[in-house]
Amino acid sequence: MRFSTDLHALARAHSVCELLGAFQEAMVRHGFRWVSFALLTGHRALMRPSCADPLNTFPQEWVSHYRWRGYDQIDPIRREAQVRIAPFTWESLSKRGTLTRVQQRLLDEACEAGIRNGIGVPLHGPGGSTSVICLASATEGPRPTAMQLARVHSLSTQLYARYWTLQQSATLARTPATLSAKELQVLQGLATGLSQAEVAERLHVSTHGVDFHVRKILSKLEAKNITAAVYFATGRGLIDPG
Question: Do the Cβ atoms of 180 and 219 come closer than 8 Å?
């Protein structure tokens, strides 16, 4: 009964904040204190770059250590999620014996930090988009059962489907930004991999001029960086992703 209630709560969520809160509460009831939801690839239709992490309740000290070590570049859980469909335990990755020394150190350090019984749940969406749910307990406890994995998978799939629906609605509701012809040219050049200096040379303007246009672009698109601006602009059909 509780499982069905959790599924319905996710399906009825009216905002991303409500959705993530309901999912976190459901995972705690399943014995997982730590929860993260990360976008492994860009979700262009949702204007979300791959660096986005909609939810991460892992200990802040661990998150800082993880980023400082650059573990996101070699994380075996993220890599496994790219090629798997079903949930998998972190322990199974160690037992397989294919991890590098640094990858195994990552899992060992997580355990030392009190992050135990880890699970990875791959999520695959339209256009080749991929995300992963990472779950872990604060105590050793019993290993996750097959039934527990199945239920977590169902709840995670419901989360992802509802997240797409809510984000698409929010994206469509936004007023399209108006970029000038020169701003579109600058953004198009950056989207194809050119540096600001190369864009300046191609458009016969100074690098300071390109920097000025970039700042205007970020402001108009309400983007934190040029990567996010490119995703927004291509999703809106303002530029060609090349």
Answer: no
Provide the domain limits for residue 102.
Answer: 2-173
- Closest of 33, 26, 28, 25 to residue 137, by C-alpha: 33
Are 94 and 191 members of one domain?
no
User: 124 and 19: one domain?
Assistant: yes
The domain that holds 189 is classified in CATH as 1.10.10.10
Count of domains forming the chain = 2
Residue 162 shares a structural domain with residue 206: no
Same domain, 20 and 105: yes
**Distance from the Cα of residue 83 to its chain's centroid:** 16
Distance CA 156, CA 34 (A): 14
Contacts for 1 with CB less than 8 Å, ≥ 6 apart = none
Q: Are 47 and 151 in contact (CB under 8 A)?
A: no
98 and 137 belong to one structural domain: yes
Q: Is residue 51 part of a domain?
A: yes
Name 80's Cβ contacts closer than 8 Å, sequence gap at least 6.
88, 93, 120, 122
Q: Are 124 and 103 in contact (CB under 8 A)?
A: no
Contact 166, 37 (CB under 8 A): no
Structure tokens of 113? 């930090």
Beta strands 55-56 and 34-39, pairing class: antiparallel
Q: pTM for the full model?
A: 0.73
47-98 pLDDT tens trace: 777 777 899 999 999 999 999 999 999 999 999 999 999 999 999 999 998 9
